[in-house]
């Protein structure tokens, strides 16, 4: 069910967001970081994962807190908030592993009705960037605020 | 404490409770993870650049 998302903390610069996943494995701190690209000023990179004991993002961890839908919608909402502050920018999304990238793709597909209302999604397939389509396998994604 | 305004499109979906402002930002250049993530992303864009007018 998409009844809610997690409460989010944001940094002054709007480049960093944090929230807690709550489930059978306890309370797990998650962090989303948007990283500027000095070579491509219209693009940000996104880092996302659990916050480990060294206060570092760990995007290989599997928290298995039975709340993946809620987490995904929280991340989508955060991207939307970020793009409201930085319109006309692209966000490059790619998983830490091919399996994680596939997971993102499944998440986009499953929440397409919500996501497509506000965001344009492009996928990298066969070495080209194309508008996201259901049923196509992608290696990475570009996300942009939809122009209305 | 600052609350993020709930967007209209999400009014039936999301419940935003509270947002606390963190005092400082971490320096991405102090983070091996962020440096690696940036490098991976830049490599993707170097190999597969996208045009500035991608959305047109």
Oligomer: heterodimer
Largest interface: A-B, 50 and 37 residues
Number of helices of chain B: 1
Residue share in helices of chain B? 25-40%
Largest sheet of chain A: 9 strands, mixed
Low-confidence stretches of chain B: 12-17
- As a percent range, the share of strand residues of chain B is under 5%
Beta-strand content of chain A: 35-45%
Describe the largest sheet of chain B: none
How many beta-strand elements of chain A?
Answer: 9
Q: Indicate the low-confidence ranges of chain A by residue numbers.
A: none
* Content-based structural category of chain B: mainly alpha
Shape of chain A: globular
What gap, in angstroms, lies between the N and C termini of chain A?
A: 28 Å
* First-last Cα distance of chain B: 39 Å
List the secondary-structure elements of chain B in sequence, H or E.
Answer: EH
Structure, explained:
The complex is a heterodimer of chains A (148) and B (56). Helices cover 26% and strands 36% of the residues of chain A. Chain A has helices at 68-85, 98-110, 112-118; strands spanning 9-11, 16-23, 26-36, 43-51, 57-58, 90-93, 119-125, 128-131, 141-145. Chain A starts with 8 loop residues before the first strand and ends with a strand. The model of chain A has no long low-confidence stretch (mean pLDDT 88). Chain B is 29% helix and 4% strand. With 56 residues, chain B is mainly alpha-helical. Chain B is built from one helix and one strand.
Summarize this structure briefly.
Chain A is built from three helices and nine strands. Chain A is an alpha+beta fold. The radius of gyration of chain A is 15 Å and the shape is globular.
């Amino acid at each position: 069910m998409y009844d809610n998302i997690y409460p989010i903390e944001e940094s002054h610069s709007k480049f960093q967001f944090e929230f807690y996943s709550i489930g059978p494995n306890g309370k797990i701190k998650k962090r989303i970081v948007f990283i500027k690209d000095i070579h491509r000023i219209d693009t940000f990179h996104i880092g996302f994962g659990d916050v480990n004991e060294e206060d570092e993002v760990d995007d290989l961890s599997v928290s298995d807190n039975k709340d993946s839908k809620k987490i995904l919608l929280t991340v989508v909402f955060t991207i939307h908030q970020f793009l409201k502050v930085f319109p006309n920018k692209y966000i490059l999304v790619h998983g830490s592993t091919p399996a994680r990238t596939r997971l993102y793709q499944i998440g986009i597909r499953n929440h397409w009705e919500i996501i497509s209302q506000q965001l344009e999604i492009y996928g990298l397939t066969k070495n080209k960037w194309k508008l996201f389509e259901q049923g196509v396998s992608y290696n990475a994604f570009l996300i942009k605020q939809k122009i209305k | 404490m600052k609350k993020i305004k709930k967007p209209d499109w999400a009014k039936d979906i999301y419940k935003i409770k509270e947002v606390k402002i963190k005092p400082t930002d971490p320096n991405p250049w102090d983070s091996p993870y962020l440096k690696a993530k940036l490098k991976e992303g830049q490599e993707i864009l170097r190999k597969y650049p996208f045009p500035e007018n991608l959305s047109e």
